[in-house]
């Protein structure tokens, strides 16, 4: 391993394997960990000298290959950064759960003043929501030390921001809070595989990310399968075989996620998760995200009829997203055996505040799906597709009726059992 001193006196650009990463400003830098090479650019909250290191990593750790979809980057009108207030509302709604979880389960005796408390946010996207979550957690830990009279023993904080390799880390790091009290690092890659050395993390956080699948189930793409999802882009109102294929893929993905975290979390380490789930009861008049995907699918079929896209392209397009029932999540965690469920509490996000207009709702879905649609259909259909979606949503008042919204989450607190694995 080699270490180099670098004094940063202006903006710099780092290009690594088709990546361009902007460092923030004087006396700060950023860390990016790649599957075969790690370039560390550590971003200090106050800092003196910046530094970086280049070292090899174990290739066997990085076997998982997800479809490299990420939220829409940049800070434009249809970007995730400008259209993620719904995800922010989910974090806001669970802030008290986070504070209580840390107050009741985080033990300062697990840390050392000379070693940082390491926190990973998995599925961070481009911000700014990830910064809110990290601030909430760090403030809760600081309060814990203060209430125990251990201010002098307060460790430093290292935060790892993780998302897919195609995530726009430029925007994320450009907007790091000036007042942050932690060192910030970027870790691109799938969170369904190993990302960190064994037992190096104290806390893991993930919000609104564990509903995404690593891939579309192969059965629903097979014309000869009873699970072929022809004419639909989601499992809403699909045959049981389609729903089962999605559920099976979700189970495999969550098991992989838990297995990786079981190796990376220290004994008694905590995982704080906010997971979108299926509502127990949904009336025909209720609106959940699945209904929006149904309408979006109908827009694509309309475009097939006028020759704008091919039917084959639509039949082969499916959104890799699954909202599990609570009992499924509980069963998967319990079967893992490494984590103890400390808390599993449902909560509701009211999107009448998040989506005050049809245009805001459509921009939200575009920020989430645009890259996926461009990769599958090729660029150029996005404007037409989402304009059609806006027109159809306007035809159904329930889509904007806050009393009809069904978007539920669970807050899950897991503690790693000691001396296992």
From TrEMBL:
<keyword id="KW-0460">Magnesium</keyword>
<dbReference type="GO" id="GO:0032259">
    <property type="term" value="P:methylation"/>
</dbReference>
<keyword id="KW-0479">Metal-binding</keyword>
<dbReference type="Pfam" id="PF03492">
    <property type="entry name" value="Methyltransf_7"/>
</dbReference>
<dbReference type="InterPro" id="IPR029063">
    <property type="entry name" value="SAM-dependent_MTases_sf"/>
</dbReference>
<dbReference type="InterPro" id="IPR005299">
    <property type="entry name" value="MeTrfase_7"/>
</dbReference>
<dbReference type="InterPro" id="IPR042086">
    <property type="entry name" value="MeTrfase_capping"/>
</dbReference>
<keyword id="KW-0808">Transferase</keyword>
<protein>
    <submittedName>
        <fullName>Uncharacterized protein</fullName>
    </submittedName>
</protein>
<dbReference type="GO" id="GO:0046872">
    <property type="term" value="F:metal ion binding"/>
</dbReference>
<dbReference type="GO" id="GO:0008168">
    <property type="term" value="F:methyltransferase activity"/>
</dbReference>
<keyword id="KW-0489">Methyltransferase</keyword>
């Amino acid at each position: 391993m080699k270490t180099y001193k670098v004094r940063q006196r202006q903006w710099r650009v780092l290009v690594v394997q088709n990546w361009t990463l902007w460092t923030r400003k004087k006396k700060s830098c950023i860390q990016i960990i790649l599957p075969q090479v790690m370039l560390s650019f550590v971003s200090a909250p106050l800092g003196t000298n910046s530094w970086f290191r280049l070292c090899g990593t174990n290739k066997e750790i990085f076997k998982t290959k997800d479809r490299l979809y990420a939220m829409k980057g940049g800070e434009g009108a249809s970007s995730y950064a400008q259209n993620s207030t719904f995800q922010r509302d989910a974090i806001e709604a669970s802030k008290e759960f986070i504070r209580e979880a840390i107050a009741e389960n985080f033990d300062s005796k697990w840390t050392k003043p000379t070693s940082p408390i390491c926190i990973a946010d998995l599925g961070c996207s481009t911000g700014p929501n990830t910064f809110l979550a990290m601030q909430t957690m760090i403030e809760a830990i600081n309060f814990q030390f203060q209430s125990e009279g251990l201010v002098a023993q307060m460790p430093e904080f290292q935060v790892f921001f993780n998302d897919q390799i195609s995530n726009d880390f430029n925007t994320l790091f450009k907007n790091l809070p000036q007042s942050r009290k932690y060192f910030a690092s970027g870790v691109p890659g799938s969170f369904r595989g190993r990302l960190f050395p064994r037992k190096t993390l104290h806390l893991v956080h993930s919000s609104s990310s564990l509903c995404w699948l690593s891939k579309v189930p192969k059965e629903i793409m097979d014309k000869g399968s009873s699970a072929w999802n022809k004419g639909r882009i989601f499992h809403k109102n699909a045959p049981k075989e389609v729903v089962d294929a999605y559920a099976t893929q979700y189970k495999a993905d969550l098991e992989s996620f838990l297995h990786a975290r079981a190796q990376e979390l220290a004994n008694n380490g905590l995982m704080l998760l906010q997971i979108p789930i299926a509502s127990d009861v949904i009336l025909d008049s209720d609106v959940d995200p699945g209904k929006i995907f149904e309408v979006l699918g109908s827009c694509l079929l309309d475009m097939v009829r006028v020759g704008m896209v091919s039917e084959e392209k639509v039949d082969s397009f499916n959104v890799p997203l699954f909202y599990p029932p609570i009992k499924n999540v509980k069963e998967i965690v319990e079967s893992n055996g490494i984590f103890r469920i400390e808390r599993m509490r449902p909560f509701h996000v009211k999107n009448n505040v998040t989506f005050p207009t049809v245009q805001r709702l459509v921009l939200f879905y575009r920020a989430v799906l645009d890259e996926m649609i461009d990769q599958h259909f090729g660029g150029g259909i996005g404007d037409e597709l989402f304009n059609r979606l806006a027109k159809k949503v306007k035809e159904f008042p329930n889509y904007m009726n806050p009393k009809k919204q069904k978007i539920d989450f669970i807050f899950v607190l897991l503690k790693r059992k000691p001396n296992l694995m």
